[in-house]
């Protein structure tokens, strides 16, 4: 038994960067988007999720490969390798930080709302205000970030990701979804209904996120990998993308086999708990809450690290989250976690806006990597193959399509 556990631990350690990005990517926004899609359209838009995960894998491998060869992180490469590259790198840095701060407000607000619901279920309708829940979470997170190292965060995120995945799988079987409806909906198509294109953009925005690819180079660098680890990097990216597809697909299938069959629609994450309570009972509702809270907390970790890591990436300085600058940036980010307490917008509305905002950044992230990975002077014998080029070109085209959908939906 001990040998088996040791093997599992070694396997998880080998895919550390992937688990970190799963933790970032599968958050409350993903859960809400997939559940809403499944409730409204069954599995008809599952193809959009599959494409998004394939393209996520392609760009993760590309960004990781360039970092392995050059030893430099994404923004540092963009800044140094292009004429006026510093402008593009600065734009990406600022846009990603703004997008992530908006997302942080939405994520923390949704997590607080879900914990309110959990407290209500456990303690006979007891009520704790959102402010106090967020304050406790912020203090706990800051304490961990103050004293912790990257390896500590990786372990914590591993626990969150495993717990989140198991929770969704357990709920899937508890609510006994209609498998025939799920299977029927797997035929690809775009429903002729208002907002369907917007959901395609949202699926892409929550999965094929610009921040994931920029952060990818940083977490690969944190791992200390070199070009000899290229196979490890590809395996890690595959595990990450496959897990994203599996977990997101399970959430979509749960909603497709239950809410879609009953003709129920979904507007936010907390409403999802209320809809599942009569189907699977309090136990299913509580497990679902724990899974989504795990998803939310695993997203918050990378979000608050984005500003110090991206600034270190841009300036080419060592990443030290215990420096005075990093601690001030992390504290500043956590202050934004209280945004949902003071703003009129509901947390899900903030999440949707931040996802649309991220989708618009994707072309600015996809095009530079296409140029960088094809530079013979930079990449040498590791220059992109024909297959890699076809894949990255497909991502670039996909990024323009989803940007168009996102802009159309916003305005």
UniProtKB/TrEMBL annotation:
One of its GO terms (biological process) is iron ion transmembrane transport. It is found in: Membrane. The chain crosses the membrane at residues 45-63, 84-111, 131-149, 156-175, 195-216, 237-263, 283-312, 324-343, 349-374, 386-407. It is a multi-pass membrane protein. The keyword Transport applies. Its main location: membrane. GO terms for molecular function: cadmium ion transmembrane transporter activity; manganese ion transmembrane transporter activity; symporter activity. This is Mn2+ and Fe2+ transporters of the NRAMP family. It comes from Mariniphaga anaerophila.
């Amino acid at each position: 038994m001990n040998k088996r556990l040791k093997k599992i631990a070694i396997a998880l350690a080998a895919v550390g960067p992937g688990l970190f990005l799963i933790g970032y990517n599968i958050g409350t926004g993903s859960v809400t988007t997939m559940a809403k899609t499944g409730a409204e359209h069954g599995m008809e838009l599952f193809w959009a999720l599959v494409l998004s995960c394939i393209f996520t894998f392609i760009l993760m491998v590309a960004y990781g490969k360039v970092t392995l060869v050059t030893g430099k992180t994404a923004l540092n490469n963009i800044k140094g390798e292009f004429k006026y590259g510093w402008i593009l790198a600065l734009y990406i840095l600022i846009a990603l930080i703004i997008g992530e701060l908006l997302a942080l407000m939405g994520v923390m607000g949704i997590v607080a709302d879900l914990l309110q619901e959990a407290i209500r279920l456990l303690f006979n309708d007891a009520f704790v205000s959102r402010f106090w829940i967020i304050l406790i979470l912020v203090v706990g997170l800051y304490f961990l970030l103050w004293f912790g190292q990257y390896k500590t965060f990786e372990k914590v995120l591993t626990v969150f990701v495993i717990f989140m995945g198991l929770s969704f799988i357990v709920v899937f079987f508890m609510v006994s979804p209609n498998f025939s409806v799920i299977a029927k909906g797997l035929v690809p198509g775009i429903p002729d209904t208002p907002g369907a294109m917007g959901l395609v953009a949202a699926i892409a925005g929550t999965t094929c996120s610009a921040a994931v690819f920029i952060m990818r180079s940083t977490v690969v660098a944190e791992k200390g990998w070199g070009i000899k680890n290229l196979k490890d990097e590809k395996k890690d990216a595959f595990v990450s993308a496959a897990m994203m597809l599996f977990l997101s697909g399970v959430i979509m299938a749960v909603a497709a086999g239950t809410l879609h069959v009953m003709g129920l629609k979904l507007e936010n994450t907390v409403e999802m708990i209320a809809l599942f309570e009569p189907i699977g009972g309090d136990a299913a509702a509580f497990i679902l809450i724990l899974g989504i809270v795990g998803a939310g907390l695993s997203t918050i970790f990378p979000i608050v690290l984005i500003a110090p890591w991206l600034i270190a990436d841009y300036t080419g300085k060592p990443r030290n989250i215990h420096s005075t600058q990093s601690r001030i940036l992390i504290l500043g980010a956590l202050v934004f976690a209280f945004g949902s307490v003071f703003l009129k917008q509901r947390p899900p509305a903030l999440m949707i806006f931040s996802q649309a905002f991220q989708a618009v950044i994707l072309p600015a992230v996809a095009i530079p990597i296409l140029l960088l990975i094809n530079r013979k002077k930079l990449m040498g014998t590791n220059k992109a193959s024909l297959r890699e080029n076809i894949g990255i070109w497909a991502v670039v085209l996909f990024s323009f399509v989803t940007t168009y959908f996102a802009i159309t939906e916003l305005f």
